[in-house]
Design a protein that fits this description.
mainly alpha; 0% strand; 4 helices; elongated; DUF6284
């Protein structure tokens, strides 16, 4: 049976200060609005049982006007954040310094 100490060199071979790099932080910062919009949409579905039922109902057929407006508004917010993220990323050099 090998001791854990025998594997320590393999596990700790790469230096790590357990902090994200500046590049990783910049990527996270760029993607945060999109993630928040996706979470908002998910919360909208999961946090509101009635809305979730209405959404499921729209899969089978037409729903009432209020439900359709709420769903469209949430989807537009997600799409707007995706578009904004794409536009921000398109004007930046590739992440990681690759050219």
């Amino acid at each position: 049976m090998k001791s854990i100490a025998a594997l320590q060199a393999v596990v700790t071979a790469f230096p790590s200060d357990d902090e994200p790099s500046d590049t990783e932080l910049k990527t996270i910062e760029l993607e945060t609005p999109q993630i928040e919009a996706d979470v908002f949409l998910l919360d909208l579905y999961l946090g509101d049982a009635e809305l979730l039922d209405l959404y499921i109902g729209t899969l089978d057929g037409p729903a009432n006007d209020l439900a359709e407006r709420r769903l469209r508004r949430a989807r537009r917010r997600v799409l707007a954040e995706r578009r904004a993220l794409t536009n921000r990323v398109a004007g930046q050099p590739p992440v990681g310094g690759a050219a």
